[in-house]
Design the sequence.
């Protein structure tokens, strides 16, 4: 019994000790780590500035919008910032780090399509505030020089629109239509929707096109075929259709439909010449020859001429000689408000026909044979010309008409 009581007493005492120790652990005061502050130095990078552009079309530098500007730390290339310049050409870049900076230099890059890129290393100005460091780059005025983009630098991201309307002007993009190399404007016109060329008349949706223009300047007034048969498609950028007052001596102010050819490069002179020769190998005197040419000078004369000579008798008739000569010349020029225009043509013809006949009559004692020959020669000359001079869009005008004659 004594032993049992001793064991119960020992167990009770042990439990009381454990309970008291647990209470001390629960109510032990705690230490908060939030009260302990460990400060590290901060490093902030900032870059501000303004970009300008300069090209051959501007007399002075202009604020460059849309340039891509990039700032990267050399010590850690993950520290970087990118932006584009505003309408005023301004940019602002920044990044920061708490890591230790051994090299404060930065890489500064600027790029813009059509301009020389900038890629340089800059050592910023350092400003200290206690343990913190601020690295400043200030570029108040940097000029980027133009650099025309080559085809290798241009990425085509969409199909060129074939035609579109801008205000009262209908525009065709000539490069959007696949044409054979060396083809003329006439071949392109026949493929453009709404345009038609028949018997020397050019129309758009049945509306007559009165005048052709080259970069806004009159191109052979009243001579639509000159442009269609001499201008190469590969030289053109756009074709524009719009209504405008044309070079006319009419006293009304009505606007007419014109087609304006816009070239890819500035064009002040257009010239062409062509000679043809045809020969009938079976007959020595039969041949045809022709030569034609045109010359356009911006703000100067516009002239074209054509001459041909043919000697081609008709083998299906009794015509022995058939000679035709033709020559024409056109001239147009504007002197301030005065327009001078003239057109002259000459035609010469020679024909010769010969007809042989034979008649045979049988009689009782003899035979009678009758032969006859008839020949007709004709020569004709025709000359005509019209010259006009007067003030553009004024009622006053003068005209000279040269009569034609037939010999």
Sequence:
């Amino acid at each position: 019994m004594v032993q049992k009581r001793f064991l119960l007493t020992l167990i009770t005492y042990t439990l009381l000790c454990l309970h008291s120790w647990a209470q001390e652990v629960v109510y032990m005061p705690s230490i908060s780590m939030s009260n302990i502050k460990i400060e590290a130095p901060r490093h902030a990078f900032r870059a501000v500035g303004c970009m300008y552009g300069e090209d051959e079309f501007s007399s002075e530098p202009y604020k460059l919008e849309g340039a891509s500007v990039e700032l990267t730390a050399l010590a850690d290339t993950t520290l970087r910032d990118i932006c584009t310049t505003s309408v005023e050409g301004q940019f602002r870049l920044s990044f920061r780090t708490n890591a230790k900076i051994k090299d404060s230099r930065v890489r500064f890059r600027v790029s813009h399509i059509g301009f020389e890129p900038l890629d340089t290393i800059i050592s910023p100005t350092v400003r200290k505030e206690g343990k913190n460091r601020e690295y400043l780059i200030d570029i108040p005025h940097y000029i980027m020089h133009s650099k025309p983009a080559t085809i290798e630098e241009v990425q085509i991201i969409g199909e060129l629109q074939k035609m579109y309307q801008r205000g009262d002007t209908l525009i065709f993009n000539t490069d959007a239509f696949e044409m054979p190399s060396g083809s003329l404007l006439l071949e392109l016109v026949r493929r453009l929707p709404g345009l038609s060329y028949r018997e020397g008349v050019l129309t758009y949706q049945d509306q007559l096109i009165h005048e052709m223009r080259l970069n806004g300047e009159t191109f052979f007034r009243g001579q639509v075929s000159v442009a269609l048969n001499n201008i190469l498609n590969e030289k053109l950028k756009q074709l524009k259709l719009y209504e405008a007052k044309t070079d006319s001596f009419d006293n009304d102010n009505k606007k007419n439909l014109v087609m304006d050819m816009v070239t890819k490069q500035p064009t002040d002179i257009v010239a062409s010449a062509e000679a043809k020769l045809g020969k009938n190998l079976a007959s020595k005197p039969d041949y045809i020859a022709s030569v034609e040419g045109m010359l356009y000078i911006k703000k100067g004369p516009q002239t074209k001429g054509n001459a041909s000579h043919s000697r081609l008798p008709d083998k299906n008739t009794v015509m022995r000689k058939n000679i035709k000569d033709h020559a024409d010349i056109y001239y147009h020029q504007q002197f301030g408000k005065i327009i001078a225009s003239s057109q002259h043509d000459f035609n010469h013809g020679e024909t010769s026909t010969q007809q042989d006949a034979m008649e045979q009559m049988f009689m009782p004692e003899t035979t009678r044979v009758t032969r006859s020959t008839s020949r007709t020669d004709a020569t004709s000359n025709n000359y005509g010309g019209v010259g006009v001079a007067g003030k553009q869009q004024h009622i006053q005008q003068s005209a000279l008409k040269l009569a034609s004659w037939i010999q």
Summary: The chain has three helices and 24 strands. The first strand starts at residue 43 and ends at 54. Helices lie at 2-26, 185-189, 224-228.
